[in-house]
Write a structure and sequence with these properties.
Chain lengths: 329, 451
């Protein structure tokens, strides 16, 4: 029994790591293709059919590139920072139910590494800890652009953690649990039961905060190549830079999963159809990230902070108060 | 003056080189400086000779006010060309800025003194490389004015068409890059695809995409190719739809407006005092355009309007360019309708080359060709300033001739040089992101600035 549990968990961890590392690669391919079609060009076309092997080529390039550590950096911190970004992104995945449970023979598999009863709190916490990647990487880089990027990262991530937290407080009050599986069960009754209908404001706030936390356009400020070169990644090369990249894309996928489970009904009743539905929802949310990037310019850091503290936070608080009153009455 | 000629101004607080490097010895535009004498300069400049007095004058102190010095450029993803601006930052706010130019200085003016007038035309391509033909035309026009030549009507109309097409290309580059700088990526392709088509048209006409060298003193290389009207019309249509789509994406976009309005405002008076011209000046609300103020090439007979902004901010500078593209489209369409038949160059064999059959078939033709190639077009003795309204502003050439086939001295008034001089001042008080956008909207072209 114990042995089976350990084996199952290890297998799940390996599967999640492999699948999402690969997905991060596919994410870049997907992003390049989607942007290309929106911008009337072809995107990657030369490596493999329709450029599909571009991911492999990029991977080989990143792995075989020289790992340059500049002279004035703080070496151990500089080396560990990208690992933090990638590791925290994947650690957050532990509490996400990716699919409904299914049975192999007479053994029931729960596709979640750890169904802890404070799942949401755990995900938010670990994702918040992901801030240390850019923060330490930027500070250790001995580069002024990285330093500016670090200042931006600290301000933006901490501010938007507040929005994320406050925006899901209202749905939390309704469901009365911090476990994502309970969230899923709460909405299992069909499209009408989705939390997005009862908590549209919270949904919008959560998505906006998701954009800020993953650093996607229009909040692409931490590594804004037009202004501050590559921000905290300026001095990185090869696979260390690649780890930041994988972390960012894995985060996008996990945020999409969390949004889909929190607000859009998750995998529904647990049937195969529900599982496919979840994948569709996640794909759409991921596509939405890319769509926004093709359509909108970036805001300025001070405008982003203005948006956070003067617009989104009051709305989130009011939303909580109204939810509370409605629940009491 | 000090840099190029060695004139010393008594009482000048900081007499330093502008286009050349600090280590450079001698003054290149003096006649006693050999044109072949190159120099290697190896040291970097820290610019503190300018930054330190500027900070003192603003009552700032690096230590006390916790400022950070940061080099925007010379190679930065958003510095269009090699420009360097050293800024003192408080957080992300720019407290003071000084810039260094000359990275692309290649001695255009000195080179002119060693070449015949027609040989200079390819050099003018490299001034504003985004609209090479307008530089060709500006230079040739200045020389022709000195010689008292007037082109046949067809030649003038072709020049108008090509000028306006170049203006469109130049504005497209500025807008595409400017919008890209704020992350509005898609606009880049919407605006650059029509530009590619325009270059295809130019390459069929002139044989080159970027550096066309199509103009000659007294005319141009050859007439337009067969079927040019239809080709040009399809280029114009794609420009129209590209501009239209880009405007629909950005014009009413809240983020775009918040990023550009009231950023780096320049009042009309200040712009005039700083010597601005072209779309940047018009964005500040000053209605000055050489095509209206001193019409040349029949511009007074075309029906088009001058686009004038109101507040001189980044938004106005970008929007003026959007609207000017539309006006240029209308000018080209009118010119296509009105273009007469006939010769494109003057028929004076002291100015333009004879036909190839004449060169190979007659003694006179061979001699004309020989004289023109070896001695160049003889320009009467005197000094003349000729200016045209180029894409970035007033592009002027002052030419001093000693009566021979090569100019004694050529001085170019490059609009970007003047705009860049005021750039560090207008970004003070704004943020890094704003400064990048301001640079993009000023459309500084390093080729003409550094000459």
């Amino acid at each position: 029994m114990d042995m089976a549990f350990i084996i199952e968990t290890v297998v799940k961890i390996v599967v999640i790591l492999l699948v999402f590392s690969a997905l991060a690669g596919f994410g870049t391919y997907f992003e390049r293709k989607v942007l290309a079609f929106m911008q009337r060009r072809l995107g990657p076309m030369h490596v493999g059919p329709y450029g599909l092997l571009q991911i492999a080529a990029d991977g080989i390039k990143l792995f075989t590139k020289e790992d340059i550590i500049p002279q004035n950096v703080v070496k151990p911190i500089f080396q560990i920072a990208p690992v933090i970004t990638a590791a925290t992104a994947f650690m957050a995945a532990a509490a996400i139910p990716f699919m409904p449970s299914f049975t192999i023979g007479d053994y029931t598999v729960h596709p979640i590494v750890a169904d802890i009863n404070i799942g949401i709190l755990y995900i938010l916490g670990v994702m918040g800890a992901g801030l240390y990647g850019p923060l330490l990487g930027g500070l250790a880089s001995a580069n002024k652009w990285s330093l500016i990027s670090t200042a931006r990262a600290a301000a933006i991530f901490i501010s938007y953690e507040v929005i994320t937290g406050l925006s899901i407080l209202a749905p939390l009050m309704m469901v009365g649990s911090l476990s994502l599986i309970d969230f899923n069960t709460y909405q299992a009754g069909g499209i009408g039961n989705w939390i997005v209908w009862s908590q549209p404001v919270a949904f919008i706030l959560f998505v906006i905060a998701g954009f800020a936390e993953t650093g996607r356009t229009p909040f692409h400020l931490v590594a804004n190549d037009h202004e501050i070169i590559d921000g905290f990644g300026t001095e990185y090369s090869g696979m260390r830079w690649g780890l930041f990249f994988i972390g960012e894309y894995a985060n996008m996928f996990f945020i999409s999963f969390v949004t889909a489970i929190l607000f859009l009904g998750g995998y529904g009743d647990g049937s195969l159809l529900g599982a496919l539905g979840l994948l569709l929802k996640v794909s759409f949310l991921f596509f939405f990230f890319l769509w926004t990037r093709a359509a909108w310019p970036d805001v300025r850091p001070d405008q982003l902070m203005w948006l956070c503290w003067k617009v989104l936070m009051p709305i989130a608080v009011i939303n909580i108060v109204i939810t509370g009153i409605v629940m009491m009455v | 003056m000090f840099d190029q000629f060695g004139l010393r101004f008594s009482g000048h607080p900081n007499l330093k080189r502008v286009l050349n490097h600090e280590e450079f010895i001698g003054h290149p535009l003096r006649k006693d400086y050999a044109i072949t004498k190159g120099q290697y300069c190896t040291q970097t400049q820290d610019l503190m000779d300018e930054m330190a007095p500027l900070l003192t004058c603003k009552h700032l102190d690096m230590e006390r006010d916790n400022l950070m010095l940061l080099n925007l450029g010379p190679s930065h993803p958003a510095s269009h060309g090699t420009l360097r601006t050293l800024v003192a930052l408080d957080g992300e706010e720019i407290k003071a800025g000084v810039s260094e130019i000359g990275y692309l200085h290649r001695g255009f003016e000195k080179s002119c003194e060693n070449h015949t007038y027609n040989q200079i035309v390819p050099y003018t391509d490299r001034l504003n490389y985004c609209s090479a033909l307008m530089n060709n035309i500006g230079f040739c026009k200045a020389v022709e004015e000195m010689m008292g030549i007037k082109l046949p009507d067809r030649g003038i109309f072709i020049r108008v068409i090509l000028s306006e097409l170049s203006r469109i290309i130049d504005h497209l580059v500025c807008l595409a890059a400017g919008l890209l700088d704020m992350g509005a990526q898609t606009n880049y392709w919407y605006l650059f695809n029509p530009r590619g088509l325009a270059y295809d048209f130019l390459s069929r006409l002139t044989g080159a995409r970027l550096t066309n060298s199509f103009m000659r003193i007294g005319g141009m290389a050859h007439d337009l190719h067969a079927g040019w009207e239809a080709e040009l019309e399809s280029v114009l249509r794609s420009v129209e739809s590209g501009v239209d789509e880009s405007l629909r994406m950005s014009e009413h976009n809240r983020i775009f407006i918040d990023r550009t309005q009231n950023v780096s405002c320049v009042s009309g008076e200040r712009a005039v005092n700083m010597g601005w011209s072209g779309p940047n000046l018009r964005a500040c609300g000053v209605a000055y355009d050489l095509r209206f103020a001193a019409p040349y090439d029949y511009y007074d007979t075309f029906d088009f309007s001058m686009v004038v902004g109101s507040s001189g901010d980044t938004y106005d500078r970008l929007m003026v360019r959007f609207e000017e593209i539309k006006e240029s489209l209308s000018i080209i369409r009118q010119a296509i309708k009105r273009i007469p038949q006939g010769a494109v160059s003057v028929a004076d064999h002291a100015v333009t080359l004879p036909s190839k059959s004449a060169v190979y078939g007659t003694i006179e033709g061979a001699m004309n060709q020989f004289k023109l190639i070896f001695e160049g077009v003889k320009v009467p003795k005197g000094t003349h300033y000729g200016a045209t309204e180029a894409a970035n502003g007033e592009l002027g050439f002052t030419i001093i001739s000693d009566g021979s086939g090569t100019p004694y001295r050529v001085k170019v008034r490059a609009p970007s040089f003047i705009h860049m001089a005021s750039y560090p001042k207008i970004i003070e008080g704004s943020q890094i992101g704003d400064a990048i956008l301001t640079l993009g909207s000023l459309n500084i072209i390093a080729g003409e600035m550094d000459r």
